[in-house]
């Protein structure tokens, strides 16, 4: 039963969940490579909109870069025959989607290396030792196994910022990752656990993608990641929430696991946390304390498709709450407002409760006063 619905599509803040913000990329050159890279792997990511117009196989070069310094002939020729090196961007190596079964030689001048969507099975030790200024390495969509990847393969890459190893056959976390790393993409592999020291020293890491693996244990591996903003551990085998959330964290994705409880005041250590996804787990009301989610920073909370019997208490600052597909049988206004009057109210805009055990007349009479900002309430 829908009680109010005003401009529903425009209200949702899905755009706020955009995983990668253009604001992260301050340099013009990074923007061009981001543009091209996102186009090249659109089948895997939906975090940013893709440009609709067709373009050349390398990024569009604006007017201010249309007359670069001439590239010495000896340098322009230094490109593996299996790959492409655009003349106007001599630091980029394109070896993607060429049915390669091995990793080509990487010239020393390269900063961006694209090997995605091939049939590469191994990355031998020392493969990047000749190109220690690499900043981006894209190896997703291959058949790389942990057994055939050198243990110190990335250790000498002191400028590496983004590493894409998703959609491979990895069963272990890569080791000896450089401190410079900002984004680590490991989704769609077969990783089963994350040792406590697997991410040690990665103080610049802002985004960690580990969804669609077989992870059952993450230990305290997130501790010490003082720059971490986003962690995606959805579609795994976790039975409890990760220990020690970083204080910098803003987005936490844990949907499609087997989590049944959350410790009291668990989210208090992450005062910047904005978005939490815990749908499709095994959470019960008994497994939550009365103030588990009563944290003022949280704007969106997804607890749909669990086993909750009650609406958990939430902060008056929360804007979107998803509770559909639970076993809730009571609409308690105290979950949203401890005091209901003209001066005390919730900022909730979207509340979804369909698929529960609520009666059609379950909404209490003081709900309009408490939930005066709600544009959507669905039961």
UniProtKB/TrEMBL annotation:
Cellular component GO terms, alphabetical:
extracellular space
Q: Which InterPro entries does the UniProt entry name for this protein?
A: Leu-rich_rpt, Leu-rich_rpt_typical-subtyp, LRR_dom_sf, LRRNT, SLRP
Q: Which UniProt keywords apply?
A: Disulfide bond, Extracellular matrix, Glycoprotein, Leucine-rich repeat, Proteoglycan, Repeat, Secreted, Signal
Pfam family for this entry, one: LRR_1
List the signal peptide residues: 1-23
Query: Known PROSITE patterns for this protein?
Result: LRR (PS51450)
Q: What does this protein do?
A: Affects the rate of fibrils formation. May have a primary role in collagen fibrillogenesis.
Quaternary data: Binds to type I and type II collagen.
| Entry protein name | Fibromodulin
Species in which this protein is naturally found: Pelodiscus sinensis
Q: Which gene encodes it?
A: FMOD
